[in-house]
Amino acid sequence: MDEPALDPEAKHRAQREAIERLLDEVGVEWQRTLVTRLIDTGIGLGLDNTSRLNLKISSAALEEMRTAFRLFAPFEHTPKVTIFGSARTQSQDPLSLQAEGVSRELAEQGWMVVTGAGPGIMEAAAIGAGPVQSIGVSIRLPFEEQPSHHIAHNDRLVSMKYFFTRKLMLVKESLGFICLPGGFGTMDETYELLTLQQTGKMVPVPIVLLDRPGGTFWQGFERFTVDHLQATGMITAGDLDRVLITDSIDEAVAEVTGFWRNYDSLRWHREKLVIRLRSAPTDAEIAQLNQEFAGLLAEGQIERTEPLKPEVRDDDLLDLPRIVLVPRPRAVGELHRLIRALNQLDSAPDLPDVPHT
Description:
The chain has about 350 residues and is an alpha/beta fold. Helix content is about 45%, strand content about 15%. It has helices spanning about 10-25, 30-45, 50-70, 95-110, 120-130, 165-170, 185-200, 215-230, 250-260, 285-290, 310-315, 330-345; strands spanning about 80-85, 110-115, 135-140, 155-160, 175-180, 205-210, 245, 265-270, 270-275, 295-305, 320-325. The strands form two sheets. It has a seven-stranded parallel β-sheet, with helices on both faces. Strands 8-9-11-10 form a four-stranded antiparallel β-sheet, with helices on one face. Helix 8 (about 215-230) links the parallel strand 6 and strand 7 (about 245).
Protein backbone atom coordinates (compact mmCIF):
# COMPACT_ATOMS: atom_id res chain seq x y z
CA MET A 1 0.00 0.00 0.00
CA ASP A 2 1.41 3.45 -0.98
CA GLU A 3 2.48 5.87 1.75
CA PRO A 4 0.12 8.86 2.04
CA ALA A 5 1.54 12.01 0.42
CA LEU A 6 2.86 14.63 2.82
CA ASP A 7 1.10 17.97 2.85
CA PRO A 8 3.30 20.89 1.63
CA GLU A 9 4.04 22.13 5.14
CA ALA A 10 5.12 18.69 6.37
CA LYS A 11 7.17 18.18 3.21
CA HIS A 12 9.01 21.45 3.71
CA ARG A 13 9.63 20.63 7.37
CA ALA A 14 11.11 17.25 6.38
CA GLN A 15 13.31 19.02 3.83
CA ARG A 16 14.60 21.44 6.48
CA GLU A 17 15.34 18.56 8.82
CA ALA A 18 17.28 16.80 6.06
CA ILE A 19 19.30 19.97 5.46
CA GLU A 20 20.04 20.24 9.18
CA ARG A 21 21.32 16.65 9.21
CA LEU A 22 23.51 17.41 6.17
CA LEU A 23 24.99 20.49 7.85
CA ASP A 24 25.70 18.46 10.98
CA GLU A 25 27.39 15.80 8.86
CA VAL A 26 29.70 18.18 6.98
CA GLY A 27 30.39 20.33 10.05
CA VAL A 28 28.83 23.68 9.14
CA GLU A 29 28.41 25.75 12.32
CA TRP A 30 28.79 29.37 11.16
CA GLN A 31 25.61 31.23 10.08
CA ARG A 32 23.59 28.03 9.69
CA THR A 33 20.32 29.84 9.12
CA LEU A 34 21.68 31.61 6.02
CA VAL A 35 23.42 28.49 4.76
CA THR A 36 20.13 26.64 5.15
CA ARG A 37 18.41 29.29 3.05
CA LEU A 38 21.03 28.88 0.30
CA ILE A 39 20.52 25.12 0.15
CA ASP A 40 16.75 25.53 0.38
CA THR A 41 16.81 27.92 -2.57
CA GLY A 42 18.92 25.50 -4.61
CA ILE A 43 16.45 22.69 -3.96
CA GLY A 44 13.64 25.06 -4.87
CA LEU A 45 15.26 25.75 -8.24
CA GLY A 46 15.26 22.02 -8.88
CA LEU A 47 11.65 21.60 -7.81
CA ASP A 48 10.67 24.51 -10.06
CA ASN A 49 12.03 22.63 -13.10
CA THR A 50 14.27 25.64 -13.76
CA SER A 51 15.83 25.57 -17.23
CA ARG A 52 19.38 24.30 -17.65
CA LEU A 53 20.59 27.75 -18.74
CA ASN A 54 19.16 29.44 -15.66
CA LEU A 55 20.63 26.77 -13.40
CA LYS A 56 24.04 27.25 -15.04
CA ILE A 57 23.82 31.03 -14.48
CA SER A 58 22.80 30.56 -10.84
CA SER A 59 25.45 27.98 -9.98
CA ALA A 60 28.27 29.80 -11.80
CA ALA A 61 27.38 33.12 -10.14
CA LEU A 62 27.39 31.54 -6.67
CA GLU A 63 30.69 29.77 -7.34
CA GLU A 64 32.27 33.01 -8.57
CA MET A 65 31.05 34.95 -5.53
CA ARG A 66 32.42 32.28 -3.19
CA THR A 67 35.84 32.47 -4.86
CA ALA A 68 35.84 36.27 -4.70
CA PHE A 69 34.70 36.36 -1.07
CA ARG A 70 37.58 34.04 -0.16
CA LEU A 71 40.05 36.28 -2.02
CA PHE A 72 38.94 39.42 -0.18
CA ALA A 73 38.47 37.83 3.27
CA PRO A 74 42.09 38.19 4.52
CA PHE A 75 41.92 41.94 3.83
CA GLU A 76 38.57 42.55 5.52
CA HIS A 77 39.93 45.26 7.81
CA THR A 78 42.11 47.03 5.24
CA PRO A 79 40.46 50.05 3.57
CA LYS A 80 40.14 49.70 -0.20
CA VAL A 81 39.63 52.05 -3.11
CA THR A 82 38.45 50.89 -6.53
CA ILE A 83 39.86 52.58 -9.62
CA PHE A 84 37.91 52.49 -12.89
CA GLY A 85 39.13 53.51 -16.32
CA SER A 86 39.65 52.46 -19.90
CA ALA A 87 41.49 49.28 -20.89
CA ARG A 88 42.56 51.09 -24.08
CA THR A 89 44.58 53.88 -22.46
CA GLN A 90 48.26 53.63 -23.39
CA SER A 91 50.96 53.37 -20.73
CA GLN A 92 52.49 56.80 -21.43
CA ASP A 93 49.16 58.61 -21.66
CA PRO A 94 48.83 61.28 -18.94
CA LEU A 95 45.73 59.44 -17.70
CA SER A 96 47.80 56.32 -17.01
CA LEU A 97 50.32 58.42 -15.13
CA GLN A 98 47.46 59.89 -13.08
CA ALA A 99 46.14 56.42 -12.23
CA GLU A 100 49.59 55.19 -11.28
CA GLY A 101 50.27 58.26 -9.16
CA VAL A 102 47.01 58.28 -7.22
CA SER A 103 47.31 54.54 -6.54
CA ARG A 104 50.83 54.92 -5.25
CA GLU A 105 49.82 57.75 -2.90
CA LEU A 106 46.89 55.78 -1.47
CA ALA A 107 48.92 52.59 -1.09
CA GLU A 108 51.54 54.53 0.86
CA GLN A 109 48.76 55.60 3.24
CA GLY A 110 47.70 51.99 3.86
CA TRP A 111 44.92 51.61 1.31
CA MET A 112 44.56 48.66 -1.04
CA VAL A 113 43.69 49.35 -4.68
CA VAL A 114 41.06 47.22 -6.42
CA THR A 115 40.98 47.17 -10.23
CA GLY A 116 39.41 45.22 -13.05
CA ALA A 117 42.83 43.57 -13.60
CA GLY A 118 42.97 44.51 -17.27
CA PRO A 119 45.39 46.65 -19.30
CA GLY A 120 45.30 50.44 -19.61
CA ILE A 121 44.18 52.38 -16.54
CA MET A 122 43.71 49.17 -14.56
CA GLU A 123 47.29 48.09 -15.16
CA ALA A 124 48.61 51.56 -14.34
CA ALA A 125 46.71 51.54 -11.03
CA ALA A 126 48.06 48.08 -10.17
CA ILE A 127 51.61 49.23 -10.93
CA GLY A 128 51.17 52.27 -8.70
CA ALA A 129 49.80 50.27 -5.78
CA GLY A 130 52.31 47.44 -6.15
CA PRO A 131 51.61 43.70 -5.89
CA VAL A 132 51.17 43.74 -2.10
CA GLN A 133 48.56 46.50 -2.11
CA SER A 134 46.52 45.57 -5.20
CA ILE A 135 43.63 43.18 -5.87
CA GLY A 136 42.34 42.32 -9.34
CA VAL A 137 38.83 41.27 -10.38
CA SER A 138 39.08 40.38 -14.05
CA ILE A 139 36.45 39.46 -16.63
CA ARG A 140 36.77 36.62 -19.11
CA LEU A 141 36.16 38.09 -22.57
CA PRO A 142 36.69 36.59 -26.04
CA PHE A 143 38.64 39.70 -27.07
CA GLU A 144 40.31 42.91 -25.93
CA GLU A 145 40.87 42.46 -22.21
CA GLN A 146 43.26 40.04 -20.52
CA PRO A 147 44.46 40.13 -16.90
CA SER A 148 47.40 42.48 -16.45
CA HIS A 149 50.71 40.64 -16.24
CA HIS A 150 51.41 42.67 -13.10
CA ILE A 151 48.83 40.67 -11.15
CA ALA A 152 47.85 37.76 -13.43
CA HIS A 153 50.12 35.32 -11.54
CA ASN A 154 49.39 36.94 -8.22
CA ASP A 155 47.33 35.22 -5.52
CA ARG A 156 45.25 38.41 -5.40
CA LEU A 157 43.38 37.92 -8.63
CA VAL A 158 39.94 36.44 -9.30
CA SER A 159 38.51 35.89 -12.78
CA MET A 160 34.78 36.25 -13.37
CA LYS A 161 32.51 35.07 -16.18
CA TYR A 162 29.69 37.51 -15.55
CA PHE A 163 29.83 41.30 -15.45
CA PHE A 164 27.25 41.47 -12.66
CA THR A 165 29.31 39.33 -10.25
CA ARG A 166 32.44 41.28 -11.17
CA LYS A 167 30.68 44.58 -10.55
CA LEU A 168 29.52 43.33 -7.16
CA MET A 169 33.08 42.67 -6.04
CA LEU A 170 34.48 45.88 -7.53
CA VAL A 171 31.94 47.89 -5.51
CA LYS A 172 31.07 45.86 -2.41
CA GLU A 173 34.42 45.94 -0.61
CA SER A 174 35.60 49.50 -1.28
CA LEU A 175 35.33 52.68 0.78
CA GLY A 176 36.24 55.01 -2.06
CA PHE A 177 36.12 55.17 -5.86
CA ILE A 178 38.21 56.96 -8.46
CA CYS A 179 37.00 57.02 -12.06
CA LEU A 180 39.24 58.13 -14.93
CA PRO A 181 37.94 58.86 -18.44
CA GLY A 182 36.92 55.79 -20.42
CA GLY A 183 34.38 54.28 -22.76
CA PHE A 184 31.10 52.43 -22.34
CA GLY A 185 32.38 50.21 -19.52
CA THR A 186 33.82 53.08 -17.49
CA MET A 187 30.70 55.19 -17.93
CA ASP A 188 28.54 52.22 -16.97
CA GLU A 189 30.57 51.79 -13.76
CA THR A 190 30.45 55.51 -12.99
CA TYR A 191 26.69 55.75 -13.49
CA GLU A 192 26.17 52.63 -11.41
CA LEU A 193 28.05 54.20 -8.50
CA LEU A 194 25.90 57.31 -8.75
CA THR A 195 22.72 55.23 -9.01
CA LEU A 196 23.59 53.06 -6.01
CA GLN A 197 24.16 56.13 -3.86
CA GLN A 198 21.15 58.01 -5.21
CA THR A 199 18.86 55.08 -4.36
CA GLY A 200 20.44 54.37 -0.99
CA LYS A 201 21.67 50.93 -2.05
CA MET A 202 25.23 51.92 -1.13
CA VAL A 203 26.36 53.82 1.94
CA PRO A 204 27.96 57.23 1.37
CA VAL A 205 31.52 56.94 0.14
CA PRO A 206 33.82 59.37 -1.69
CA ILE A 207 33.61 59.31 -5.50
CA VAL A 208 36.34 61.12 -7.45
CA LEU A 209 36.25 61.79 -11.19
CA LEU A 210 39.94 62.25 -11.98
CA ASP A 211 41.06 63.73 -15.29
CA ARG A 212 44.40 64.32 -16.99
CA PRO A 213 46.03 67.67 -16.06
CA GLY A 214 43.96 70.33 -17.80
CA GLY A 215 41.48 67.74 -19.11
CA THR A 216 37.81 68.51 -19.71
CA PHE A 217 36.28 65.01 -19.98
CA TRP A 218 34.53 65.09 -16.60
CA GLN A 219 33.61 68.76 -16.97
CA GLY A 220 31.68 67.73 -20.09
CA PHE A 221 30.05 64.95 -18.07
CA GLU A 222 29.04 67.51 -15.45
CA ARG A 223 27.55 69.85 -18.08
CA PHE A 224 25.52 67.00 -19.59
CA THR A 225 24.30 65.96 -16.16
CA VAL A 226 23.19 69.46 -15.18
CA ASP A 227 21.86 70.60 -18.58
CA HIS A 228 19.99 67.43 -19.53
CA LEU A 229 19.36 65.29 -16.43
CA GLN A 230 18.95 67.89 -13.71
CA ALA A 231 17.24 70.47 -15.94
CA THR A 232 14.55 67.99 -16.96
CA GLY A 233 13.95 66.69 -13.44
CA MET A 234 15.50 63.28 -14.09
CA ILE A 235 17.74 63.74 -11.05
CA THR A 236 17.53 65.98 -8.00
CA ALA A 237 19.41 69.26 -7.98
CA GLY A 238 22.62 68.70 -6.03
CA ASP A 239 22.88 64.98 -6.77
CA LEU A 240 26.28 65.56 -8.33
CA ASP A 241 27.50 67.51 -5.29
CA ARG A 242 28.67 64.26 -3.72
CA VAL A 243 31.26 63.84 -6.50
CA LEU A 244 34.66 65.56 -6.71
CA ILE A 245 35.76 66.45 -10.24
CA THR A 246 39.48 67.21 -10.34
CA ASP A 247 42.70 66.83 -12.30
CA SER A 248 44.84 66.79 -9.14
CA ILE A 249 46.21 63.61 -7.59
CA ASP A 250 46.61 65.37 -4.24
CA GLU A 251 42.98 66.51 -4.25
CA ALA A 252 41.81 63.00 -5.19
CA VAL A 253 43.77 61.40 -2.34
CA ALA A 254 42.59 64.05 0.13
CA GLU A 255 38.95 63.46 -0.88
CA VAL A 256 39.19 59.69 -0.36
CA THR A 257 41.07 59.76 2.93
CA GLY A 258 39.52 62.97 4.30
CA PHE A 259 36.00 61.62 3.86
CA TRP A 260 36.75 59.36 6.84
CA ARG A 261 38.40 62.00 9.04
CA ASN A 262 35.46 62.24 11.44
CA TYR A 263 32.60 60.37 9.73
CA ASP A 264 32.64 56.63 10.44
CA SER A 265 29.38 55.01 9.36
CA LEU A 266 25.61 55.32 9.40
CA ARG A 267 22.58 53.24 10.23
CA TRP A 268 18.88 53.69 9.56
CA HIS A 269 16.20 53.03 12.16
CA ARG A 270 12.84 53.57 10.48
CA GLU A 271 12.88 57.22 9.36
CA LYS A 272 15.80 58.13 11.64
CA LEU A 273 19.35 58.29 10.33
CA VAL A 274 22.12 57.71 12.86
CA ILE A 275 25.58 58.96 11.88
CA ARG A 276 28.48 57.57 13.88
CA LEU A 277 31.53 59.84 14.34
CA ARG A 278 35.04 59.66 15.73
CA SER A 279 34.61 62.79 17.86
CA ALA A 280 31.45 64.21 19.42
CA PRO A 281 30.43 67.67 18.16
CA THR A 282 30.03 70.50 20.67
CA ASP A 283 26.75 72.27 21.43
CA ALA A 284 27.86 75.22 19.31
CA GLU A 285 28.71 72.90 16.40
CA ILE A 286 25.31 71.17 16.62
CA ALA A 287 23.62 74.59 16.48
CA GLN A 288 25.77 75.51 13.48
CA LEU A 289 24.86 72.26 11.69
CA ASN A 290 21.15 72.80 12.29
CA GLN A 291 21.36 76.27 10.83
CA GLU A 292 23.38 75.20 7.79
CA PHE A 293 21.43 72.01 7.01
CA ALA A 294 17.88 72.98 7.91
CA GLY A 295 16.87 72.16 4.31
CA LEU A 296 18.07 68.58 4.71
CA LEU A 297 15.65 67.82 7.53
CA ALA A 298 12.16 66.44 7.05
CA GLU A 299 11.35 67.17 10.69
CA GLY A 300 13.02 67.96 14.00
CA GLN A 301 16.68 68.83 14.38
CA ILE A 302 20.12 67.27 14.27
CA GLU A 303 20.86 66.03 17.79
CA ARG A 304 23.49 64.08 19.66
CA THR A 305 22.23 60.68 20.76
CA GLU A 306 23.18 57.60 22.68
CA PRO A 307 23.13 54.34 20.67
CA LEU A 308 19.57 53.43 19.67
CA LYS A 309 18.03 50.16 20.86
CA PRO A 310 18.73 48.25 17.61
CA GLU A 311 22.38 49.32 17.79
CA VAL A 312 22.64 48.16 21.40
CA ARG A 313 20.98 44.86 20.51
CA ASP A 314 23.52 44.28 17.73
CA ASP A 315 26.50 45.67 19.70
CA ASP A 316 27.01 48.03 16.75
CA LEU A 317 29.96 50.41 17.32
CA LEU A 318 28.63 51.41 20.73
CA ASP A 319 31.84 53.22 21.68
CA LEU A 320 31.45 55.88 18.98
CA PRO A 321 29.63 59.18 19.48
CA ARG A 322 26.69 59.75 17.14
CA ILE A 323 24.11 62.21 15.91
CA VAL A 324 20.57 61.49 14.72
CA LEU A 325 18.32 63.25 12.20
CA VAL A 326 15.29 62.67 9.97
CA PRO A 327 16.37 63.62 6.44
CA ARG A 328 14.19 64.46 3.47
CA PRO A 329 13.85 61.69 0.86
CA ARG A 330 16.30 61.90 -2.05
CA ALA A 331 18.53 64.44 -0.29
CA VAL A 332 21.64 62.47 -1.22
CA GLY A 333 23.74 65.46 -2.24
CA GLU A 334 22.98 67.30 1.00
CA LEU A 335 23.80 64.19 3.05
CA HIS A 336 27.27 64.17 1.51
CA ARG A 337 27.66 67.86 2.24
CA LEU A 338 26.71 67.16 5.86
CA ILE A 339 29.37 64.46 6.10
CA ARG A 340 31.97 66.86 4.70
CA ALA A 341 30.87 69.50 7.21
CA LEU A 342 31.22 66.97 10.06
CA ASN A 343 34.75 66.24 8.85
CA GLN A 344 35.62 69.95 8.99
CA LEU A 345 34.39 70.60 12.53
CA ASP A 346 36.96 71.90 15.00
CA SER A 347 36.14 68.89 17.18
CA ALA A 348 37.07 66.44 14.40
CA PRO A 349 40.33 64.48 14.70
CA ASP A 350 43.41 66.13 13.20
CA LEU A 351 44.29 63.27 10.86
CA PRO A 352 42.24 60.73 8.90
CA ASP A 353 42.02 57.36 10.62
CA VAL A 354 41.58 53.94 9.03
CA PRO A 355 37.81 53.65 8.54
CA HIS A 356 35.75 50.67 9.70
CA THR A 357 35.17 48.14 6.91
